[in-house]
## 1
Amino acid sequence: MTDNTGAHASRAAIAAYATGDPALPAAAEWAVEAHLETCADCRTHLADAVRIGDPTLDSALRRVWTELDARAPRTPAPGRPAWSRWARTWAPPTLAPRLTTGVLVALVAFLVDLIAPEHTPTPLVLLVAPVAPLFGVAAAWSRRLDPLHELTASTPRAGLAVVLRRTAVVLAAVIPVLAVAGAFTGLNPALWLLPCLAFTTGALALGTVFGVDRAALGLGLLWTALVIAPTLMNLGAPQPLRQAGLPGWAIAAAVAAVVLTARARSFTALSDKN
Amino acid sequence: MVRAVNPTESAPTRYAWEVQASGLRVRAGKRMAVDGLDLRLGTGVHGLLGPNGAGKTTLIRALATVLHPAGGNLELLGVPVNGRPDLRALRRRLGYLPQEFGYYPKFTVREFVEYMAWLKEVDKQDIPGAVQRAIERVGLADRAEDRMKTLSGGMLRRAGIAQAVVNDPDLLLLDEPTVGLDPAQRLEFRALLRALGERSCVLVSTHLVEDVAAACSRVVLMASGRSVFQGTPDEVVAAGGTDDVGDSPMERGYSALLAAEVTR
């Protein structure tokens, strides 16, 4: 584009163009501009004219800068800190309220155990350990509880990995509370940990068939009706929560994990049941 | 902002049609909402028209791979979707805006599109640029730092479109994207559609016949789970006579084609 054969613009014309001098006729201004687009030499002259400076030109440039400054945002966008973005990749905000409910349930059970330890034949913490994570797990993959569910399900990342990430967040919040409570009551940690894990994997495995929120609700209600309620009504200590029940819980958790892995594809699709 | 072109983008495509379906059957609940549909879509903007309950949303969900076909053949971007395809790789090249699209109210527009870009496995170092570009494309740059709950219906739709295009999809599926847009925004949206249709296959389902007339290069007309017409907007107009129902030539053509299907 530099093979300009026509006459070059005069230095005076270029200087007048740079300062926007009204003495330069409009037609001449266009001619200079068109010429500058194709002529590197004259662009150099224009650069010189701007660099040397001229009161008119300086004030024009200052005005442009002031206007630009006024339009530019005062501060850079107030984006959230990096850790918050990172945390979001682990759990969506809709998980928080459900998760908190689960933690509160565990805390209340702990408090009751502290205040009135003789009230129930079995520590309350032991009774609620299986259901405490279910509140959060229900929201880990649910059309009803997650407004972004359909969008999430359509993305490449959708699948077991995302569901497990969210479940891990739930367990990371619930297990410490149970651990502290269990330590105070002097229980074998396996007694509350295994049922807790078995119910969590069980809810996810059943969730591949019935929808995770329904599975969590079903398991929670079953446990409440068959174990928690009878125990609280002093109908005797529940069988499954004794030392002898541990292998059963381990087997249940393992079976659930196998089913979950085999049916993991259900977490990439939209289902009426989710 | 200039975007770097990676080698896979400039590689020649190895498929004839972005979407190829034959005898496609998809269930919506207990009902077979898409029943024996044949469809071929190439690059360009395709309008998906049809009465309520024709199966438009179910078809779009099947194309977005969130519903598995109950029968027939479906190939997306050269990948057969029947059986157990590598959904991950395919989905990275899809963009989808559902009809009822939810959002987290406390997220800002930028955070929402960023989160979706993460879910869509956009390269980590590309996310800020891709997000900004998507937001600018839909004209929401001045509201990028506003929370989603403060946006109007039309702006929410545009945020939804921004997340759909953030990964520069080869196949873009928009279910009722013009709902809630005012006339000026609809005009802008049509221009955006035409720009998107230059390099990718865009399928837009809509009730608004005039949107199709203005922005689409091809029209697919669906009735009771099957495709009853595929052609250009001009062919739709040509199908309409003066005694058909409708206020515009396009509407008359639309009702003529639907009426022909009912009597058949």
Note: Chain A has 13 helices and no strands.
## 2
Amino acid sequence: MSGTADLRDSYDVAVIGAGPAGMVAAAICAGAGLSTVLLDEQAAPGGQIYRAVGETPVRRPAVLGNDYWHGERLVRALRASTAHYVPGATVWSLSREREIGVSIAGGARLVQARRVIIATGALERPFPIPGWTLPGVMTAGAAQILLKSSGMIPQGRTVLAGSGPLLWLLAWQYLNAGAKLDAILDTTPRANRKAAWPHAAAFLLSPYFRKGLRLLLSVRRRVRVVAEVGDLRAEGEGKLQTVAYRVGDGVETRLSADILLLHQGVVPNVNLAMSVGIAHRWDEDQLCWTPVVDGFGGTAVDGVAIAGDGAGIAGAWAAEERGKLAALAAVRALKPDARREQLPDEMQVRLALAQVERGRLFLDRLYRPADRFRLPEGDTLVCRCEEVSARQIVETVALGCTGPNQMKAFLRCGMGPCQGRLCGLTVTELIARARGVSPAEVGRYRLRPPVKPITLGELAVLPKSEAAIKAVVRG
Amino acid sequence: MFRRLPDAGEARLAVTIDGKPARARAGDSVAATLLAAGVDHCRTTPVSGAPRAPYCMMGVCFECLVTIDGVGNRQGCMVPVEDGMAIEIQHGRREIER
Amino acid sequence: MNATTSHDVAVIGGGLVGSAIAWGLAKAGQRVAVLDEGDIAWRASRGNFALVWVQSKGLGMPQYAGWTVRSSNAWGGFAEALKAQTGLDVCHQRPGGFHLALSERELEQREAMLKRLHNQPAMQRYDWEIVDRERLRRMLPQIGPEVVGASYCPLDGHVNSLRLLRALHVGMRQLGVAYLPNHAVDAIAWRDGEFTIQSSGGAVRSGKLVLAAGNGNARLGPMVGLAVPVRPQRGQIVVTERTAPFLNYPVVTVRQTDEGGVMLGDSLEEAGFDATVGTGVVSAIADRAVRMFPLLARLNVVRTWAALRVMTPDGFPIYDHSATCPGAFVATCHSGVTLAANHALALAPLIAEGRLPPEQLEVFSARRFDVPAAA
């Protein structure tokens, strides 16, 4: 793996994240003659959706499915471009002047860019049920990463629980791979169907419809599916032993289990964007914070754009198109004389985007996670790092604490190494419910660099001005 | 907890987990190596001492913190495993010497 | 809260200064309302370094040194009282503290400054000393080769300042204080011995008024005949992951918290109302910390932040009582942690009685800034 020495001091364009949006954007910018760096935290390009697509040990293509292998084309295009792709590069800061702090193999440095495209994608929505911190409980996305990058499948009694396309896709891939699944506990509320129905027509025209339906039916034929699960707990001494659930308000059923894989949708990975001061709005359809961007992913921070799911969840195909749009804006700004034939046609991109975004609202409504699974109660941990419970949050609201930043000061929630990635949404929503106001009014954690850990040693050797040194020396 | 698919290639790398020899496959992360080796938990928390295991596998949850080659609190899911690595369970707060 | 409710005292500001005073007022039997802003506000109380610090304070105003020593001495009892009432341990510790020097020149400057401080007339006597490298190593074994020595004062200590803020809020609640968040103050009127405070959350009336709004006091003071010349001064802080205990004493810019994180401070920057973190300053903080304790280089940084100190022109606190609106007080300082014990136990009872005795507190009046500059 290369180190920071291979990086230049400055680039025309820096793209952060090598998922579909980042790969496409970097290849286009480089193709237009802009000096382009693509910084990615993983060891290989693809992001999470195409994780390890170039080197997965899963040899049979049918296991992971055609949509996964599509990622190979994007990786090839990236590799064929002159973009400087840097794996193992952790971006820990971005300033409003577009100075990027990046660490590679334990060494940090600063890189300047005229344009920055943030393509940091999505992460799984927190699923705070009792026992979700027990060993043996992990996310469906984590399990899928183990499959893609290591060819690993569950051994022992395995339960999938939650809601949303990824849960079904994982089940399908597992069955293809020969894994045995004990049950799928579907937590999708029945009422969601009614809410989604008005948007069904649009979804019928979506490319996701036929594929999704086929996959769903295929899984249902082979695994026991329990619908309308309204209550879910993981139990065990030191590790998962039992999954307890109820259908609706019915009697509790207990399953012995070694592995519980949870999923209830994905949300934008906003930490870097928030830390540079990009405005975010509460998205009531997707129940998350979404950055405020224009039609090219541009933000109010000069020269900084967001592409892909980090700009609002729309899926991998949309991410590609949004990557193209962000790249187009960068090229137009920095190289207005770039030859048109080197660039994607904006109209075509927008048509393609409209096509793949069709039916999104149907999916959002259908798979909207139930309140019960977003708003925990009692001793259920909200902040995994600092072990702060739902009860503590609610009691502290009663003390007069109105928002997540004061909550953080009082209880330390969000102060651990994950920096609120796994508790931020829950804390905001819990405060909102306790106060009887909207999450938008409650607000969110204020985030500051470093958004990923960096050692003090790395930080200490970065360049600093005389004024900065003088500011910290005391007589 | 997890097993490798037959076509996933051989685990040729030799590592130690808390001093005991284990095998790892080139291309795996340290966290995947621990899961493949059947390790129950990779750390205990600095707050209550509760056991935790890898949760997200993509670098966001910090549950897979382990000591690698004497350096504490490293994200196991973000570190590619290497031959000869000494992996240790992280017990609570790290120590400044390691 | 509707305008018909009248309180004995309204405290504007729910940070450490306002909360400590409100807690003390409630203990003294006053019916208190605290008007605070919302979740996003300039809150030094969430961004401070949490030292209870004595050494080096008071050069230019020996009475401030005395006031600080008094608070430091009262802190143990204050922490006990909070724990007894709320069950929350604010982890106050007073092992003495160090100020490390990274060169002979720094050490000489340090010693000269402390001598000037202690040679002031009317300076309260307390122990301090310069410690050479050999002795220092026995107390702080992890110091790096560049550390030549330190100043030490046994009165210095530290506390968990976020838990202090929480304990004060829990304590206020238990004492019946009306805590009113989202009450940003727009205007204050005084008539017939009563204050009417217009805020974003409605009007509040009270017999007395305490301005404890930090940098907001500059705007609020003139509404009740008080000049409060304060300005923001930025400080940036770095904190590491939790680490097993290794540092037994607080150092003025390096301390290990009870939770295990190592806090590294802190910058002094004139940046107006801008709490942006800058990589250069944070790097300079890290550099000095690593030179003091080289093993720190291995630790991961989990957070950095910037907060705004509340600075007066001479750096000393302002405690004042309005001449034109009797019953209106102001309390402002940049040492809300160190002075919390005084604010709760000494200042609040005086405000409850309605006067600041000149022999004690006249020196802290903002009238000291009215003196025309010498020709």
Note: Residues 43 and 90 of chain B are 4 Å apart (CA to CA).
## 3
Amino acid sequence: MPETALTEAEIEKLEGICAKYAGQKGSVIAVLQELESSFGYVAEKAVNFVADKMEMPRSHFYGVATFYAQFHFKPRGRNIITACSGTACHVKGSDRLIDNMVREFGLPEGEDTSADMRFTLEKVNCVGACSIAPVIIINKEVHGKMTTDKLNKEIKKLKGGQ
Amino acid sequence: MMAMNLEIKVCMGTGGMAAGGEGVLKAFEAELKHNGLEAGFGKCSSGKVGCRGFCARDVLVDVIVDGQKTTYQYIKPEMVSRIVKEHIMEGRPVAEWEVKEDYHIFHDKQIKVVLHDCGEIDPEDIGAYIERGGYEAAKKVLSELGPADVIELVKKSGLRGRGGAGFPTGVKWEAARKSPGDVKYIICNADEGDPGAFMDRSVIEGNPHSVIEGMIIAAYSVGASNGYVYIRAEYPLAVERLRIALDAARQKNLLGKNILGSGLDFDIKVKLGAGAFVCGEETALIASIEGERGMPRAKPPFPVASGLWGKPTVINNVETLANIPCIIRKGAEWFASLGTEKSRGTKVFALTGKVKNTGLIEIPMGIPLRDIVFEIGGGIENGKKYKAVQTGGPSGGCIPEDCLDVKIDYESLMQLGAIVGSGGMIVLDEDDCMVNVARYFLNFTQSESCGKCVPCRVGTKRLLEILDRITKGEGREGDIELLEKLSQDIKLTSLCGLGQTAPNPVLSTLKYFRHEYEAHIRDRKCPAKACRALITFSISEALCKGCGACMRACPAGAITGEKKQPHKLNQALCIKCGSCFDVCKFKAVVKE
């Protein structure tokens, strides 16, 4: 999907980010984090704008962005569901919860966002809440000791919500 | 109203919040107000505290009336009004909601040094920390001791790095102090990446000032004027509380220029990690702070000689730094009296998995693993049989039943092929397949390998492929030997700790559970009945009551049947998720 051009408001925002980090050593990650939080993902048009403005190679930004799991290169769904795949969650059956959500959200093979942009399912290594494993984070709210039943109820709520 | 002082403490670490801590605290505030109780006490406070350790029982609430403490467990907002009415207004604690004997057993064997104030004080209130002796150690160091004295003290205490490697902290500080250069850095490594470990998160969420105080003391000793906390972005609550704590410390001139008139200039910046496990490695962490791809480089030079921006840098783990103020306050001898000869002090562990009491525990080094699992942990849940404890995350190993009496310290665990690591302890039971456990960790290290060196990048991939094959029932004769050979090569030739330790889960499971590998390869059987490709589910006609529970639970629509008639499972549709097995109350679903 080709990206649309930057709007004026977006340009203003990006210029603000550039100004904030201008001349600061080692700010590439911080700039990318700002892009991720402003756009919901690391948008190509935004990276290109910022790199040019800061007079740094675009490839430098992409090199760093692709290294870290936190950065996404495609727009994400309106609901973000994070499944913890840490060891404790794994041995307490997180795989089954994940399989269940892949089916419920109708995620296409190899994709983490549903075609209608309602749901993004992401797996993370460990959210550090292992004593209440398995853990699912639904739109930033942590749910512990998750079961298929409880999860299905939450999904129903999300689906009913829009 | 007889009582004079009332204090209510609600656990609001990540665990407490997930269980609804915020709602419980609001309910208490509303109830106290509603009943006009605030005015009736000499001192009345209700507030949040950090992790109390026993997260499985959240929300935990302390109600302290005139120094008399009652702890309640599993509290929900709707239970609050009864506690306020019966306990606080009428003086009769609600016995049925109080913690029971097992709560005390959970705590009895623990010695809380690092976690001493966690769960007792409001982490967002610097005053609460100061009231309990906080920042006294920093004041003492700045006004009475020279940098060399402090280093000597830390060396004498025997404190070793709590991040995993166990390097003596005082020696590290001394090396950085002696490195030439005007600009030096202190970095707190809060990039707690091991899956199954959450002690650093809990310490920062529960008592962030202890870490800041440790950093101030480190800065003074080493001669650093700049500090960083490199913390995972996946820990939003810890980041928020850390920032609040840093601001409060700056306002009290505990950070900034000329700290407390001592002449020391030192301030701390927060750097958010961006999700890369390898950044827990010192040189990778430095690259990440510099804004680059977090790839490790060869050592030496070590960071103490040439670290961040090429300057001498000390990198200490959260728990290590949180120990420092306690050592200064109570003395090196006191600290060294805890633990064993080579592993002094206490260690915080995250006890999780198939154990009854999951949570955060702090124990003196040297106590047997058996005590942790069966006393503190209360044994295996659901009456299952113990199989192993996995320690040290992806760099660690498994400890089988025969070795349950091992003493928990750096050397003893190393001898077994496991490690203390950052302190994750995941208990596994008879339902866990050890080949699958090894595959799980290799899947992790393979995807987290930074790709810089070949043995790690390619080697972990090949290990994972072999393990994948074995768990799918496609193992071949010679696979075990190939795993062993490849593991040794990767260990010997990888650039950094990630690769050098990545094969450990394979080697350790091969050492103690070789028969499970053999069963997968030769008999195409998974003894734990966990590997999906090697098991089948069926419904026993004789036992099935036709209740329909399995039919409703089946996500694949593979089960059909009439009410009160035995149900049928269509093998062609079955995805082997085990949902039917879990919900059947009559043991009619058979797993083979």
Note: Residues 8-21 of chain A form the longest helix (14 residues).
